[in-house]
Design goal:
By secondary structure, the protein is an alpha/beta fold. The protein has a domain at 3-158: Rossmann fold. Helix content is 59%, strand content 7%. It has 17 helices and five strands. A five-stranded parallel beta sheet has the order 2-1-3-4-5, sandwiched between helices. Helix 3 links the parallel strand 3 (61-66) and strand 4 (89-94). Helix 6 packs across helix 7, helix 8 (199-211) runs parallel beside helix 10 and helix 15 (296-308) runs antiparallel to helix 16. This is DUF4062 domain-containing protein. It comes from Micromonospora solifontis.
């Protein structure tokens, strides 16, 4: 059964009957401390704060009501517990009280009454600091306002159930991308981009998008910036399939390099190097002038990738840029096998230059 908790000071008693009637219309169980409907265990260390936290954690919806009085447990314990637990929360405020708050805020420095100051503090915390929406009501409208807000909340919950059902259906065939329809590909993109979604589903969705000709730049950049390491690495590996425009947009490639520079995962840079070169060699070479190469594995990967593209290096401007990159790869003293090949490639590219003019031979 749906459990709805009414939170507020003692003066919420004025609206308790309206609250009970609306809750009954949803066949919900009402929890409110004035009627004793609050979880509690009596023992030597028992407290209202502990009982209130337990009640909030076990409620499905928390309705906070500001009439006139200030309830310390309501705002210092119950609200904070509800938000920390992620409980669906509604906040209502009597219109007269809200109007008084607006007047008091204009003369904040002149407030003398402690009750007025607490009123200003709590509404400011709810509305300005926590950015919760306050629903105003009058004595004759609370019942309808509450019913409308609860209905809207149930509508949103059903929408989330619908979305979950769609994702579950699509997830069953993500391993077979050929079976996905256009609408199912759109759902796949939602799965791939959702940072809270199942990691396995996200990876399968990324592979499906790559198999179907990729996705838009904004989505690709979001995947490259994912907080999930496995998702980020896979997006980098499949970048040539996810990003299809040719020639590549230099700004997009530069953004990819910036993502790698910001990442603490060296695997991102190592994977990005061959991916960008496969997309657009000239654009990638120029963008990599800003690529951080402090890690030896990245330098080795860059040298090997450039060596693999040696036959494609014909543009004199690109060759100059490649030579600069190779020089950066040779900065460390340790002479590894890949560095020997890197030096040979550097020498071969330099040998193509006209000894008289210093320009690459035509």
């Amino acid at each position: 059964m749906l459990r709805i908790m009414l939170c507020g000071a003692r003066d919420t008693e004025r609206f308790r009957e309206d609250f009970v009637q609306v809750a009954a219309g949803f066949d919900a169980e009402v929890w409110h401390y004035l009627s004793g409907d609050i979880l509690h265990i009596n023992h030597a260390q028992a407290s209202w704060e502990t009982n209130s936290r337990d009640t909030v954690r076990n409620a499905h919806v928390c309705v906070f009501l500001i009439v006139e009085a200030y309830g310390e447990i309501t705002w210092q314990t119950e609200l904070r517990e509800a938000l920390a637990a992620g409980k669906p929360t509604l906040v209502f405020c009597l219109e007269e009280t809200y109007q008084a708050y607006q007047v008091l805020t204009r003369k904040a420095s002149a407030i003398r009454d402690p009750g007025d100051q607490r009123l200003v503090d709590i509404i400011r915390e709810v509305e300005s600091e926590r950015r919760l929406t306050i629903v105003p009501f009058s004595y004759g409208t609370f019942r309808d306002r509450l019913k409308r807000q609860l209905s809207r909340m149930i509508e949103l919950a059903l929408g989330l159930m619908e979305e979950r059902n769609k994702r579950t259906t699509v997830a069953r065939i993500l391993s077979e991308p050929a079976r996905l329809s256009r609408s199912e590909l759109a759902v796949s993109a939602d799965i791939a981009l959702d940072e809270f979604e199942n990691k396995i589903w996200r990876k399968q969705a990324i592979r499906a998008l790559a198999a179907h000709g990729g996705t838009d730049e904004e989505s690709i950049l979001a995947l490259l910036a994912s907080m999930e390491q496995g998702v980020q690495r896979l997006a980098v590996e499949l970048l040539p399939q996810l990003y299809v425009p040719r020639p590549a947009d230099p700004e997009f490639v530069a953004h990819c390099v910036a993502v790698a520079n910001r990442s603490a995962d060296v695997g991102v840079t190592r994977r990005l190097i061959p991916a960008l070169l496969a997309i657009d060699l000239p654009v990638a070479v120029h963008a990599m002038s800003t690529l951080e190469l402090v890690e030896s594995g990245a330098r080795r990967r860059l040298a090997e990738a450039l060596e693999a593209h040696e036959r494609d290096l014909t543009d004199p401007v690109v060759i100059d840029a490649v030579c600069t990159l190779l020089t950066r790869c040779l900065t460390a003293e340790f002479e590894a096998d890949w560095k020997a090949r890197c030096r040979l490639l550097h020498e071969r590219l330099l040998s193509r230059r006209d000894p008289h003019t210093g320009e690459p031979e035509q």
